Each structure stands twice: as structure tokens, then as C-alpha cells.
């Protein structure tokens, strides 16, 4: 109890004296003092410089707002402790995984009355706005969007005699390519199965074959993977892992392990969002031209991912207005797009990946304008990622299931079983997981 | 009187530290078990709802089963090995200090480093164990990657990492045994095993029982190794009570249910300690 209580409450009790956030800093000298996070660390010199320059420019244009930037993003592990200790920033970054739970726990401010004044709000894709909307009330703004695709190593494709300009489009093609990659001496395909990431990717697989994890049944959610689609996904994983031996021997992998494999040139393919390309290139000092990104195999659906900003539930109306102004100006500003791209290009930064500063969140004319500017300023072979961009446009993206992390924890063990036990009984695995997931979904109010 | 003031002064510092960092969190944990909190609005009293949620979670039973299994394995392996090692070290005539240092060395490694090191040892591909086995032409194992061997693999790590301290305590106890007892046993014609059974174990009984209690309490709170090495997998085979508690608190941000689980663990360990003390006192009487 002592140890567990300490684990549990260490964060909750760690209430610093120099707290930031809405309950400690407020309007000073007629200025709204606004704590924001999302400031890149000093190790990312370029991104940090751009961020700090933007802060300065925003403050110049809005002399009544004083921004106090903080490094880092929203971390679910420390979020509640920061909120309890008054250290949560006024404006905080979230992944699309987070809003549903934060809204359910009333840990984000209601922005419904304020978003109507946010310029270009109507031009944002509706499905992305839905991530932050519950019962017609708006709790945040999406600032980046990506769907899961197939990331592959172009040099390893060439080594295996595969055409890097024609990446696999179906799961059968993925399997065939993985076999050739294995014969060429690298792991053909890698899949996560740890830290809830196996369940997360299983969800992406299910959507890619036209299935899903949960469906609405009246007022309640019920599990929806113990069916032929679920069987198909597990069968394909088993075939690659055990029949072809193209997934390597080491399992229980998570994202960092797989990025390491890809960065070290030991891997052919894995499911990933485009931000993985930048992460691998930066970490391993690689080259963008060595990677390709294709649409999710199967293309019957894909899992939506992305980023956004929410506001501290303790924020005053003045802070909410100032916070929305900052988020719109910095992240949702088509009028600054060309200027941003020019800055990136002039300073030798990569332009062309479907990630910030070219966030794929717009519809209509704004989107067309963005695509034209991207082509104009691109500094990398955008054709390597075109298959992904086209696929993302055509493939219907959908959200994670309710109670996503708990559901993923259960599904992790399904993926683990298939990848670590050649004789795993898929029917039993899916049935057991269905019972467990239904128990979790029954708690959704 | 002045001496008393000084004594209470020193004592109060410790009391304050205990009150703030130990007793208050325990009381707060008990209160949290019956609340749902979001740290924004006032906590909601929810009665036994957090406990009901736990009992409805299929992983609850799995976590307890795994924790008990781990504890039994840790007792079988982790309890006997340090004792035998201590007996062997006690018999050494040469290089005593060197071997004692060698046995104690792993204790000095931070648990996270130990876990990461062994994760590499266990890697079914290029890992140390399988490379050696392959080199010897022997069949390789899946180690952490198989639900059949994952738990025992964790027990080996923890035994390796922690046996140094237990070995030294046993060694200290062994050295307090009067040499005459062994001489008398020799005269009676007792062999090595008989000497261990009739002299060594009875003479070190108190230390053995104390370490047993401490080890059960520690092993039932196993967290770092499964968290780093397996994440609870494969197939939930290494989800322990503390790992489940951590998930509730920091993955799901459900501090109420996490506290409820913590309270149950506290109760189980409390009952165990009570029974243990009662049994050992009866045995002593």
C-alpha cells in the first residue's frame, strides 16, 4: 500500500509553489497572461526558433496578451497531477486519443460560445471538429490530422527487388513484399503489440478491411471485432509471422522499437502516420528520399489521428478568448501559410510531408490553396508520399472506440498471442476479448 | 527536560516527514477509493462503485492470479538461491571478498538498467541467451515473448538483481552460528545436508522468517520489471496488481479505482502479515 500509494499520489501531491495555469496567473496590468504549451525543446533548434518568433510576433500584434510558453505536450500520465496542482497550462496540446476522456471527466473548458468568432473555423473538416465535440458542445480545436498509412524503406525495397514507386496496395501485396524483404535479409513487416499500441494498430487493421472495434447498439456500445473481419486480420498477421517468418523473431514491440529498426535500415514496412518519417529522419540523421509512405493497405477505411488544443477548465472567459486567438493565429491560419512555407524553405527545412506546417485539416478552397503552395515550395520528393495523400483523401477515416485505452489494453493481448504463439486459437482469442471489451464498453455513459 | 526537548525536536522532523509523505497519502488513498475525482470540481462520493468497477474488470482476476503466481515462483527460486549462495560463500576459504562483491554487484544497478539489460539478454533474435544457445547447438527460447515463460523470466531477473542483499543478511546470520555446533554434529557423524538441516536452518530461523515476510510484501508489489520488459504481456501473462493499478491511475486517469485497488492490495498484505506473525509466534511459543 505504501509503495502503491506513493506511486499513485506522488504526482497528485507534487503541488509546486511556482504554479502556472489559470488559478495562479491572471490578468496583470491590463494584460491577459496566458500559459501555453507546445513549445519545442531547445534540442529542436529550428522549431524552437520559429515558435519563439511566432510568440513574439503574436504579442506584437496583440499587445493585450502576454504569452508564457512552456515546453512539452499533454502527457496523460501527468495531466491530472498538473491540473490538481494548478500547473496545467491555459492552452494545452492533445492527441486525438485524449479529448473524449478529458471531456467525459470535465477536464476541458466548454468553448461553444467562443468558436463562432474563430476565423476559418467553418473551413475545418467536420470529422476533425467532431473529435472535440460532444452533444453539440465544442471543447477544442483540431490543428493537425493524419491517418495511418504504410511507411516503407525505399532502399530495402530496391534491395529486395521491389519497385519503391509502386508500394503495396492490398494486404496480399504487403505479405508478398514482406516475404521478399525477408529473403533480402531484413525484417519484412513489423507490428506493435505492447503498451496498448498493439490494440491501437489492431483497430487500424480492422478499419482497413472494412471492420471496426465497436458499434452502437441502441444507447450502448458493443464490441464488433469477433467476426470474419477480425479473423481475417489475425489470419494475415499469423501468416506473415509464422508461415512466412517475415516479421522477425522479436515481438512485444512498441513504436520506439520499430522506429529504431526502420532508422537502422533493418525493416521493410510498418503501419505509421506521416509524422514517423520526420521522427526517423531527425533521430537517425537519415534522408527523406529513403522513405515512402503509401495509403493504408486494403483502403476500406482508416483510423484518424491528429493533434489539437484544448483549454484549461479553470480558465476565465478572457483567457479562453486569448487562447483561441493564439491557436487560430498560430495553427489555423491560412493567411500565414505561404509565409510559413517560405520560412521553412529559406532555412533549409523539409517541406512536402503532410504534417505541420501543412496540416491536412482544411476543406474546399483553403485545402486547394494549401496543396498548390505545398507543391510550389516542396523541398523533398513529394511523389514518395503522394500515394498516401491520395489514399487519405479517398479513404474514409473514423475515430477510435470509446474507452480507447482500456479497449486497446485488452486487444494488445490478442495481437501478442498471435505474434508469440503459433498455435493461438483465433476464435477463442476474439471471443474472450469480445467479452472483456463489452465489459469495458458497458461502463460508457 | 532540555534533553527531552532536543529528542522531541529530532523526532518531530521525522514525524512530519512520515505524516506528509506516508500517512497522509495512505489516508488520502482510502478516501479516494470511495470518490471519483477530476481535480476541477468537488470530488463525487460514489460509495462502492470503484470497487464494483474493479470486480467487473476481467483483468482484475488475471492480475491477482499473476501476482500470486509470481510470488510463489519468487519464493521457490528467489528465496532458496540466496540461502544456498550464502551457505556456499560461508564455506569459501579463498577469494571470499571477491565473491561477496560479485554477488552483491547487481544490487548496485538501478532496477531500470537491470530490466533493460535483461531485455536484451532475452531478445529471441540477437539476444545473449539465444546467441549462446545457438552457438552450442541447443534449442532457443522465446523467453519474454511467450506467455509460458514470461513470468519465470521475470522472476530470474528479480532474483539476480536482488539476491545480493538477502545473501549478505544470511551470511551475517550464518557467521553468528557457534562453530561448536558444527563440531558436535561432525562428532555425531552428520553429513553436509544434515548439518544444514539440523544446525544451519534452526540457527538462522529468525532471519529466514523475517526475509520471507519482507520478500512476500515486496514481490506482491512487483512493478518495474513487467512495466519495462513486457508491459503486462504477452497475453496478459505478466499483468500484475501494481501494473493494473498504474494503468487505472495514469492511462485511464481513474484515480478512484486505482486507489480502490491499492486498498485491496493493502488489505491482502495486511491479512498475510497478521497471519504470518500469528503463526510464527505460535511456533515460537
Automatic annotation (TrEMBL), chain A:
The lineage of its organism: Bacteria, Bacillati, Actinomycetota, Actinomycetes, Pseudonocardiales. Residues 1-21 form the signal peptide. It comes from the Bacteria. SUPFAM superfamilies: Periplasmic binding protein-like II. It comes from Lentzea fradiae. This is ABC-type glycerol-3-phosphate transport system, substrate-binding protein. InterPro entries: Bact_solute-bd_prot1, SBP. It holds the Pfam family SBP_bac_1. Keywords: Signal.
Automatic annotation (TrEMBL), chain B:
Keywords: Cell membrane, Membrane, Sugar transport, Transmembrane, Transmembrane helix, Transport. InterPro entries: ABC_transporter_permease, MetI-like, MetI-like_sf. Residues 64-276 form the ABC transmembrane type-1 domain. GO terms for biological process: transmembrane transport. The keyword Transmembrane helix applies. One of its GO terms (cellular component) is plasma membrane. This is Multiple sugar transport system permease protein. It is found in: Cell membrane. Pfam families: BPD_transp_1. Belongs to the binding-protein-dependent transport system permease family. The chain crosses the membrane at residues 7-26, 68-89, 101-121, 151-173, 206-224, 255-277. It is a multi-pass membrane protein. It comes from the Bacteria.
